[in-house]
Amino acid sequence: MLVQKYKDMLSGKSVIRQLSEFATARGQEIGYENVFDYSLGNPSVPVPQAFTDEMIRLLTTQDSVALHGYSPSLGITSVREAVAASLERRFGLPFRKEHIFMASGAAGALAHAFRLVTQPGDEILTFAPFFPEYHPYVDLTGAMLKVVPPDTESFQINFEAFEEMLTEKVMAVLVNTPNNPSGVVYSTGTLQRLADILRKKSAQYGHDIMLISDEPYREIVFEGVDAPCVARFYDNTILCYSFSKSLSLPGERIGYVAVNPACRDAETMVNMCGQISRGIGHNCPPSIIQLAVSKVLDQTADLKVYETNMNLIYRELKELGFTCVKPGGTFYIFPKALEEDAKAFCSKALQYDLVLVPGDTFGAPGFFRMAYCIATEKVERSLEALRKFVKETY
Amino acid sequence: MLVQKYKDMLSGKSVIRQLSEFATARGQEIGYENVFDYSLGNPSVPVPQAFTDEMIRLLTTQDSVALHGYSPSLGITSVREAVAASLERRFGLPFRKEHIFMASGAAGALAHAFRLVTQPGDEILTFAPFFPEYHPYVDLTGAMLKVVPPDTESFQINFEAFEEMLTEKVMAVLVNTPNNPSGVVYSTGTLQRLADILRKKSAQYGHDIMLISDEPYREIVFEGVDAPCVARFYDNTILCYSFSKSLSLPGERIGYVAVNPACRDAETMVNMCGQISRGIGHNCPPSIIQLAVSKVLDQTADLKVYETNMNLIYRELKELGFTCVKPGGTFYIFPKALEEDAKAFCSKALQYDLVLVPGDTFGAPGFFRMAYCIATEKVERSLEALRKFVKETY
What is the CATH number of domain A4-47+301-393? Predict the structure, then answer.
């Protein structure tokens, strides 16, 4: 008598995971150093030493009963205060602890955000190309994720398609900038126009349309790129953050929901997150990780390698004749494949031990994603393989 | 446009939490050492040193990218293997890693178990007295928690009421032994009879009725008490465990789901947990905590103080004329109040700075809970207050 919807999901394996498993298996044959594995978005640089030092300080100096004790259901108060202060310093918005809910990574934060503002049958819109996990994240709440087709010229927003799909059933719009998989950062123009439309339609429909901003790549922005703060454009914004990428600790499950102080009922929403938690078995990120992260809020891992890798790959791609929007951040790039069927393209690339992910899974067929969170030395060797692949195949 | 059900929950404050807040506030007036705070079930003894040592070893010797990396969605393989081996040693059932799903505490484990086997509208039965958080845990999934009234003589199962309530709509039965709030351990006779009924009714209704066993107090069992393993009596058992109490680290959110190897579709169920996670934003307990806990699976914090406290309190209660079932484990005791209305009783006790929780909230009006996870010295002082309270009031 098992619940069929979850059983059915077992057969639909993630393309990204399948490719990653292929890369691991191939690595056992020829040595993993010879597999150019661009499949997974796993940080490749160490956590800041200050985080490790703070963990050890807590473990060696603090009373263990207090240190490992229950966190209040909204998060440890001092940690929420520190997060709010950091956001205020950073973005100039008057965040207070009352606007912060500590969550177990962006997945945990999004799980709360979706439940705050949608009921079964409601719609959430997001924009292709998009992180494919958004589908189970949203669909399993009973709400429905609908995907606005991409503007493939710029990977900014396809506003024409968006306005058509923004019906009365849409309760929230989900954005992800800097974007996985395109690496593109939404411009001021894009965010301004998005906010204008949301205000207009909220008024027209007589209900607030919430903007949910998924920002795990907020700190990975390349030189000279302006990455505007989404919440500055639209009051009814729920910011979902994860430290996974900025601090290189995806396994420790730490992030937060920050409700824009200007949002209607902001404090109530944060309190509601504590109730949502009871239904989904969340009960806060680990206490010691909350405490340690709160001491390094304004630091990041050394993220320079991602920009170095991006520049190498982007230059090579252009030289080889690929069409490609230059990423403004993240550790992803999303070029157009050299044939219409990106799945066929990626499958051929495997012959050269290049593990690329077809764009179909991100809602943008014909493109492919490279996750370049790997050593620069390996990127350099991979480009030889890429040249060989392209010259011998196209 | 906030979701009303969560908003409504904000006004229904937990009685336990309210009393705990009273205790804290009163502590600020007269010194917390003078408040006999029996409200909260927070462990009061340190984590084993071996856990702290292992955390420091991991932080100082392991590559941080690997250490803090993503856990596979079912948990770190070596950790699942270690948990399975420990369960096999302990209970003689052939657990393998395929039966283990790592979860963020018992709340996380239960969130998965309920979703595995119930759909909206289905019923889950549990037995009073019961942990009141079961209500939001179950009800927010869309299933319904129904509570079988207590057998107040023994706090074993009221089988007459149970058989009446075990209709075709019941998909799972939830037990908690050793029990919060009664401290009672279900006997072999109780578990045998429960299993017989479940087998009979499963056959009659043509669907498996799952037994969900919530076992956070498994390791806190007092001398001479036999605490039988629930899964040994019934194949279709899902065991939900937390290390919060046994290792004194409730804030670090670590536990597991273990599906009885004899359960129909056991391995499929564990794989399904990985899918359920995607919908509730769970994504595994923290990597470093998984790794550290896996090294101390067969250890506990020094739990003797709980038995010492229980014996002191139980003896005093009996001398003062209370009716009380002697706890076999946990750090709770659940005596009958000296007047019919336990709320009035507990309210009068507050005059003596005794913070007791009325049984109404646990589905057993007329009783009250004492959580004696406090220093023995404070228990001793509290007994003077209890004597004074009883003599002056009744």
Answer: 3.90.1150.10
Tokens 């919430």 correspond to A210
Q: CA of B288: which chain A residue's CA is closest?
A: A252
pLDDT band at B11 (very low <50, low <70, confident <90, very high): confident
Alpha-helical (H) ranges within chain B are 4-9, 15-30, 49-61, 64-67, 77-91, 105-117, 134-139, 159-165, 188-205, 266-280, 287-293, 304-319, 342-349, 376-393
Q: Where are the domains of chain A?
A: 4-47+301-393, 50-293
Question: A283 pLDDT exceeds 80?
Answer: no
Would you tell me how many other CB atoms lie within 10 Å of the CB of residue A238? Answer: 30
pLDDT of B382 reads 98
Distance CA A30, CA A32 (A): 7
Q: Quote the CA–CA distance of B376 and B306 in Å, as a whole number.
A: 9
Q: Which of B46, B110, B281 sits opposite A137 (nearest CB)?
A: B281
Taking CB atoms and an 8 Å limit, are A136 and B52 in contact across chains? no
CATH of domain B50-293: 3.40.640.10
Burial environment of residue A192 by CB neighbours within 10 A (0 to 12, 13 to 18, 19 or more)? middle
B1 pLDDT band, cuts 50/70/90, is low
**How far lies A267's CA from each of A48, A99, A186, A240, B89, in Å?**
32, 6, 28, 16, 49
Q: Which residues contact A291 (CB under 8 A, 6 or more apart)?
A: A54, A58, A67, A76, A78, A79
> Which of A44, A271, A283 is the closest to B10 by Cβ?
A271
A60 min Cα distance to partner chain B (Å): 8
Q: Determine contact: A6 vs chain B, CB below 8 A.
A: yes
Interaxial angle between packed helices A376-393 and A304-319, expressed in degrees from 0 to 180 and rounded to the nearest 10? 20
Check pLDDT > 90 for residue A11: no
- Does this complex have an ipTM over 0.90? yes
Smallest Cα distance from A66 to chain B, Å? 9
Average pLDDT, chain B: 96
- Split at pLDDT 50, 70, 90, the class of A1 is low
**B45, B105, B272 ranked by CB distance to A283: nearest:** B105
Of B269, B294, B238, B231, residue with least CA distance to B93 = B231
* Predicted confidence band of residue B12 (pLDDT cuts 50, 70, 90): confident
Q: How big is the CA angle at B340 (ends B337 and B343), to the nearest 5 degrees?
A: 70
Instruction: Return d(Cα B313, Cα B305) in angstroms, integer.
Output: 12
| Mean pLDDT (whole number) for A117-122 | 95
Distance of CA A268 to the CA centre of its chain: 26
Asked if A385 contacts A352 with a C-beta cutoff of 8 angstroms, the reply is yes
